[in-house]
Amino acid sequence: MRSFISNRVQQIPPSGIRRFFDIAATMKDVVSLGIGEPDFVTPSIIINAGIDSLKAGHTHYTSNNGTTELRVAISKQLQKLYQVEYDPALEVLITVGVSEAMYLALTAILNPGDEVIVPQPCFVSYAAEVSLAGGTPVPIATRVENNFQVTADEIEAAITRHTKALLIGYPSNPTGAVLERKTLEEIAKVVQKHDILVISDEIYDRLVYGIEHVCFASLPGMWERTILLGGFSKAYAMTGWRLGYAVSPPEISGAMKKIHQYTIMSAPTIAQDAALIALQQGDDAVEDMRQRYDRRRRLIVDGLNSIGMKCFEPRGAFYAFPSVRGSGMDDAEFAELLLNEERVAVIPGRAFGIGGAGYVRCSYATAYEKIEIALERIANFVRRHG
Ligand SMILES: Cc1ncc(COP(=O)(O)O)c(C=O)c1O
Questions:
Q1: Residue nearest to atom 2 of ligand 1 (CA)
Q2: What is the number of domains present in the chain?
Q3: Do 298 and 207 sit in the same domain of this protein?
Q4: Which ligand 1 atom is at minimum distance from the Cα of 243?
Q5: Within a domain: 1
Q6: In a domain, 2, yes or no
Q7: Rounded mean pLDDT of the chain?
Q8: For 2-57, what is each residue's pLDDT tens digit?
Q9: Residue 343 and residue 336 in contact, taking contact as beta carbons nearer than 8 Å
Q10: Atom of ligand 1 at shortest distance to CA of 96?
Q11: Are both 268 and 225 inside the same structural domain?
Q12: Nearest to 222 by CA among 257, 181, 183, 189
């Protein structure tokens, strides 16, 4: 029988992350630094809002765009945090996580042959989602010398007459890099000069440590050119609730709504009710988790550096991205042997695209005590192989 799978899908490589989880799942006593989601359970105030929603019989679809209350609350939150204005009726769309928002954004803007610049290493879905939407991802490597910040010059060098958009995600998964205001302003100038759009995945915006998060849409002239994606998964520990949003100028938002309406209908109703309470009453819980991540961040960065695994200081999200070069192994070998010999799971940097080889991603969204055990085991491993 012939294959019925589309070329588009066949050409997409499987995620490099999954393989490690599959191996780790068959082993006992593994300490996983591989997970890209909070270890915390959703704060109880938010869980209770979900339960109340169910009990009140909110078991139907909502408006395609999401509930008015939640759209208003998101608009207010963005105004409060970043002084950006979005009309809840026309410019805010509630989605099934940033994952769906990303799919909508790319599908809404891309024609076949359009190029999207994707600085890497980055979240594993970016390049794949560009391809699935019919576009061509153009990866550019960020470098540790620049603290894994993409520069305006690197972006400008990758722009061609086919470039439609730049897709950035800062604070970064997997490096923990945060773009400084000056760098962002330089990028904004290039974006304006070459008349391109920016899709800015700011899902980790609330998880920054001693540095400000600058919302891309708040930069001069960028509101018109930005599709801003945000969500509840990370800061509110709500990955399983599957809720996010996209805010953008009305024409783009309208196009995204069209796709959302036909493919998804509406984001989960219970999750929308819970997210409303998260925005209205969740700040203390977010701050508590942020402080706990920060404590773990210092433990893991200091620990890795003292073992001899040079680790750039992550300023956001919940990942450390140390170099494995001192071990004489490449990142894939390092991760595989570390898992087999010491039962510590980390993700090879190459899974996150170009510029990732030679590094491993260590998530510190895991208990402090587990990170201590992982560091001891990694120290044994490096001593043995160093
Ligand atoms: C940078 C980044 N964007 C988006 C997502 C997916 O988010 P959501 O759960 O909102 O779909 C993740 C999840 O790991 C991520 O790290």
A1: 123
A2: 2
A3: no
A4: 10
A5: no
A6: no
A7: 96
A8: 999 998 889 888 776 777 777 788 888 999 999 899 999 999 999 999 999 999 99
A9: no
A10: 11
A11: yes
A12: 189
